[in-house]
Amino acid sequence: MMPIDLAAIASPETPAVDPAPALAIDGVTHAFGARKALDDVSLTVPRGSFTALLGPNGAGKTTLFSLVTRLYDNRSGSIRVLGHDVRREPAAALSRLGVVFQARTLDLDLTVMQNLVYHATLHGIGFRRARARALEVLESVGLADRAKDKVRQLSGGQMRRVEIARALMHGPELLLLDEPTVGLDIGSRAALLAEVRRLIAREGIGVLWATHIIEEIEASDRIVVLHKGRIQAQGSLPDVLAAGHAADISAAFLALTGAAEASGPRGEEG
Amino acid sequence: MNMTPSPSPSAAGAAASPARHPARLPLSGYVVCMAGICWREALRFMGQRGRFLSALVRPLVWLFIFAAGFRSVLGVSIIPPYETYILYEVYVAPGLVAMIQLFNGLQSSLSMVYDREVGAMRILLVSPYPRWYLLLSKLVAGICVSLLQVYAFLAIAWFWEVEAPPIGYLTVLPALLLSGLMLGAMGLLMSSLFRQLENFASVMNFVIFPMFFTSSALYPLWKVQESSLPLYYICLLNPFTYAVELIRFALYGQFDPFSAMVVAGCAVAFLCAAIVAYDPSAGLMGRRGGPEAVK
Question: pTM for this structure?
Answer without folding.
Answer: 0.80
